[in-house]
Amino acid sequence: MSASTELGKIPVREAHAPGARVLHPLRRASQLLTLALLVVIPASGMFRIDLAQGGVRMFDYLIWFSDVFIVMGFWVFIASLLVMMYSLVGAVFCGWMCPQNTVSEWANRVTERLLGRQARMMRLDGEKLRVATRRRSWTNYLVLGVALLAAAMLYALIPLFYFYPPQAIWAFVTFQHDPRLVGSLHWIYFVVVVLMLINIAAIRHLACKYMCIYRVWQHSFKTRDTLHIAYDASRADHCAHCHYCVDACFLEIDPRKTEVFDSCVNCGECVVACDQLHSRSKKLEGPGLLRMAIGDEGGKRARGALGSFFGRAKTATLAALVGGAMFVFGVLDFQPAGMTVYRSDSWQGGQVLDYTINLAHKVNRPVDMRVRIEGLDAAHYALSTASVHFSGLGRRNVNLHLDPNMPRGLYRFKIVVEASDGWHDASELRHYAGGKEAERGTAKG
Description:
single chain; alpha+beta; Immunoglobulin-like; 4-stranded antiparallel β-sheet; 15 helices; 18% strand; disordered C terminus
């Protein structure tokens, strides 16, 4: 008898898998880290929408929406990475990072602690709110209301960081005057707080199951090979009269009967619950019956699933490379300033004599710009200023006035702008001067 045959007769007992013990703490850490990043990213200046300047601030740089290669390249790259993530791990974003899910789970825990485990604000079966007898006190109701209101007020502050710097938000919170804040901002904030309070108090995970369009978009990239909850049906007798995993699911689905398109967000709470039950039980042997898997039920197609993923992700991979290349090219070709020349809306004697030179600085550092005119005699034009100083980001206008007594003819001239940091630009204009005879003809008409 061979050694392999003898080894095969040795009974093997599958021990408790300790991985599920760290699954829940890791998910909580991921949720808290996501909330922190949602505040830190705009507060640090890494990304902030600047409506006054008409662009997006990324650190000390202002990206205009007309910077096509940077804007389009960035979003194509990010969208392609998200598509690749959805194709491999499915709705992990919802279960591990989504702020809506995070605050809904927190609200459920607070409600259960104050009003009992059966106290659910909105039930699909139409059953009324059931509060535990021992928890029926105005103190618990008051504490719950204050907690939910505080969460709504904090959540409503997060979007402000994407439009205002932290100093302006502090002035908003402390009711101080700040010229950067719009006058109706407190009313807007009040409306957002009310909507968030309704969401946190009543809607919660109903938004995830029936209202989230983002979740529907994620489902467009799911297949049977995508990360999902796998159930060991060979040991189904372990859960003949057990619904511990169902009770642990905050989306109220049965993890033992998951489908390709369902409400599962791959949070892993059911895996943790089943694993903990088996580890504490003296009768049940082996690990839990649930696990997170890629491929078919037995995990034998894991390599095939990865192959299928890379096969389906060819287009997304190519798009990510193209988006990354566009972004890099846009960064290398980035212009730290811009110049635009406008004709005046007013007409003097049937001719345009005034032009507006709009100068924009897109880098948050001091710079000096000089404006000069080439191709015209100095006596034939006047600049409101020939030097402009920028202390940071901003726009300035320089007015150019042409002499109405210029000799008749067509003039070609350039408006040249040079900055102290080396940037320069020029705009060529054509101006027809009618001379004094044109003015007399206009007066007779």
